[in-house]
Amino acid sequence: MKVAGKVAVVTGGGGGIGGAIAQALAAEGARVVVADLDAATAQAVADKINADHPGSAVAAGGDVSGTEVIRGLIELAEKGFGPVDMYFANAGITGAPGLDADDAAWDLSLDVNLRSHIRAAQLLVPGWVERGDGYFVSTASAAGLLTQIGGATYAVTKHAAVGFAEWLSVTYGDQGVKVSCLCPQGVNTKLLFPDEGADDGLSATAMKAVTEAGDVLEPAQVAADVLAAIDDERFLILPHPKVLDMYRHKGADYDRWLRGMRRYQASLQGS
User: Fold this and answer.
1) 7-241 adopts what CATH topology?
2) Active site includes 154?
3) Which residue in the list 135, 154, 254, 264 is annotated as catalytic?
């Protein structure tokens, strides 16, 4: 799909990967609704886009895991630009690290990392099927193909996000609905490197696992990879190509892979 002239909604768009995707879309001629829990950061990204590409972006704040907030984003896009052609389910949280996570922590991670994708698809996919065209981009993680040492809620919900994206593609791919799933490793965002004093980043072990696993990419590079995949209508987006090799090793001998991950975890913990 060519993005020029398309109408897109990008959640988690106030910075990081989402902000970079929103800017990349506008640079290619798309019109974008930039959404984020932090309305000020969403507005800052929209203002930057409009400075370079006047009239190409609007901003919205809100909890993008909620159905009514998502519905509001769609209506905002329709009012300002026209029907939504593309939805980037990019908002995400790291969540609680281990078995001590309570039900509320699990529900929060499930809402943001998974149910937000489901709820957006419920609102958009029927119309896309009727039109015979639409594009859903799910931001998951390499953790959704492999796992996340030191991050139980993150690993599980990102696996679920990959599974939902697969299901969407299988179910609606022959009815005009395109689906891509972004699965990066380390990216230079606040999710990996939170502001000082913030309590929403990865655990120390999880951060070490990510940063030692390979290169930490800049969001602009990831956004470029996303747009290239959309142009090719390719499902799996791997900014870190070696993730595919690791995924193949996992599938080829699951028990060996699990043993290797346990050894790697022990090394990270200094055991």
Assistant:
1) Rossmann fold (3.40.50)
2) yes
3) 154
